[in-house]
Amino acid sequence: MTDKSVTVLIPGRIHPRVLERLERDFDIVRVPEQGGELELDEATRAKVRGVAVSGTLQRAWMDALPNLEIVSNFGVGYDGVDADHAATKGIIVTHTPDVLNDEVADTTIGLLLNTVRRLPRAEAWLRDGRWKSEGAFALSPLSLKGRHVGLLGLGRIGLEIAHRLEAFKLKVSYHTRTPRSDVSYTHYSSLREMAQAVDTLICIVPGTAATHKIINAEILSALGPNGVFINVGRGSSVDEAALEAALRSGTIAAAGLDVFYEEPTTASAFLDLDNVSLLPHVASASVPTRNAMADLVVDNLIGWFTDKTVISPVPETPVKK
Ligand code: DGY
């Protein structure tokens, strides 16, 4: 595939490896990611047959590309692309599952430990010279030992998190719409009942209408004063005002957040809280894992434009073999 006969649109920023590889095989058109109309003349719009996107592809832009065949999304989560709408138009959407499972699961455990044992604050204590000048860092009120973790979501990444939690000798339960037949963890059909039963809640569900603000005041109150909440899924799953209130009032003990309702964010509502550990959406953000994700974005496009096969379509737009 080197005749560059196919035009691929890249809205906004994308991983440099995606750009470098796509430029070898495709005719590339780039536009800034912004609200409003797609600023491309009619002839260019008509040429575009593929999109590579990291973030959001506006639905109106999908509609403005009459010959669009495939949207290749950078990320396992594709909440920035309306896949149901794409399906109605016969447009394939692909994403980057599996290659990031271990990285995200590892980061989740790190964030859980940071939250419970306050390790980033302990390091800051040393770096600021306070160990020498003021003495030992305060004991962490919480411990990971003996916790019962409830996973909201038990997909590919959730399962990797569960396996790691088992190695930490922790009890694992989960809430999904449908119980899995291949695990022995206790399934809760009600999120509230699971929150009541566990003391640690990890959210690893995609951002959809069904998960929007699913973590609310009621769930946090059910989790209780020894409760730890960790979010590595999507910020849209959390009512952040309710979470802030729960952390300030002691309704729950602590939270670790890698994702936020709006990103990027200064997370100003949480900054003065001592019982929160914050990360800037880095769960999959290592060079090797992001390279693997970038390759999958490109390989899906090459597959489609070579022989109409893709490696990782989203379930809303299956590709017939
Ligand atoms: C994803 O792939 O959806 C992750 O959130 C990116 O880090």
Descriptive report:
- The chain is of the alpha/beta class and 321 residues long.
- It has two domains: 7-97 and 288-307, Rossmann fold, CATH 3.40.50.720; 101-278, 3-Layer(aba) Sandwich (Rossmann fold), CATH 3.40.50.720.
- Helices cover 36% and strands 16% of the residues.
- It is built from twelve helices and twelve strands.
- It has helices spanning 16-25, 42-47, 59-63, 83-88, 101-117, 119-127, 130-134, 156-167, 191-197, 217-223, 240-249, 287-307, and strands spanning 7-11, 27-31, 48-53, 70-73, 92-94, 148-152, 171-175, 186-188, 200-203, 228-231, 254-257, 276-278.
- The strands form two sheets. Strands 8-7-6-9-10-11-12 form a seven-stranded parallel β-sheet. It has a five-stranded parallel β-sheet with strand order 2-1-3-4-5.
- Helix 4 (83-88) links the parallel strand 4 (70-73) and strand 5 (92-94).
- Helix 1 (16-25) runs parallel beside helix 12 (287-307) and helix 5 crosses helix 8 (156-167).
- The longest helix has 21 residues, at 287-307.
- The two termini are 21 Å apart.
- The mean pLDDT is 97.
- It binds (2R)-2,3-dihydroxypropanoic acid.
- Residues 75-77, 100, 283-284 line the site of (2R)-2,3-dihydroxypropanoic acid.
Summed up:
The chain has 321 residues and is an alpha/beta fold. The protein has helices spanning 16-25, 42-47, 59-63, 83-88, 101-117, 119-127, 130-134, 156-167, 191-197, 217-223, 240-249, 287-307; strands at 7-11, 27-31, 48-53, 70-73, 92-94, 148-152, 171-175, 186-188, 200-203, 228-231, 254-257, 276-278.
